[in-house]
Amino acid sequence: MKIERLHHVAIICSDYERSKRFYTDVLGFKIDNEVYRKERDSYKLDLSLNGQYLIELFSFPNPPQRPSRPEATGLRHISFGVKDIEQSIAFLQSKNITAEPIRIDEYTGKKFTFFNDPDNLPIEIYEVL
Q1: Are residues 6 and 55 in the same domain?
Q2: Are 75 and 68 in contact (CB under 8 A)?
Q3: For residue 91, is it within any domain?
Q4: CA distances to 63, 90, 103, 117 from 94, in Å
Q5: Number of domains forming the structure of the chain
Q6: Where a domain ends, among 61, 90, 112?
Q7: pLDDT of 70
Q8: Do strands 103-104 and 111-116 pair parallel, antiparallel, or not at all (unpaired)?
Q9: Which of 3, 31, 45, 121 has its CA 20 to 30 A from that of 52?
Q10: pLDDT at 129
Q11: pLDDT mean values, one per 10 residues, the chain (129 residues)
Q12: Domain named VOC: which ranges (predicted)?
């Protein structure tokens, strides 16, 4: 098998409209497709960033809570590259989203931090130049 690239990350949210607003209005993802699957009482929202399909956002009735944060088994976090981490943090603050203090990657020397989506999914922003 030869994997070419990451295709997408799937996220199950507890409040579909709230998460839809967060990923589109706050993080700037574009809606590529949205469907309601009546048989599952579930929405599926396909989101892209800069023309690259990245996230499938799902709603399901009564999904279980994440057992712990952030070291639960499974997806630990998702990470997005940004050019200016301080500017990105200021933008998040303008939307009443709190980021952790900036950390420095001990191996690359690059800056990064974490904040949460509406369901407390940890999201990392990592400064790429």
Answers
A1: yes
A2: no
A3: yes
A4: 30, 6, 21, 15
A5: 2
A6: 61
A7: 60
A8: antiparallel
A9: 121
A10: 77
A11: 78 93 97 94 94 92 74 77 95 97 93 93 90
A12: 5-128
Instruction: Note whether 87 and 54 are same-domain residues.
Output: no
CB-count burial class (<10 Å; 0-12, 13-18, 19+) for 123:
buried
Which pLDDT value is given to residue 76? 76
| Location of structure tokens 């799937």 | 10
What is 68-89 written as a DSSP string?
A: SSSSSSS---EEEEES-HHHHH
CB 125 within 8 Å of CB 82: yes
Task: Give residue for tokens 């589109």.
Answer: 24
Give residue 72's pLDDT: 65
Tell me which residue range forms the domain holding 40: 1-61
CA dist 100 and 129 (Å) reads: 21
Whether residue 5 sits in one domain with residue 56: yes
CATH code of the domain covering residue 127: 3.10.180.10
Write down the pLDDT at residue 15: 92
Terminal Cα-to-Cα distance of the chain (whole angstroms): 32
Any idea which residue has 């690239």 for tokens?
Answer: 5
For position 127, what pLDDT does the model report? 93
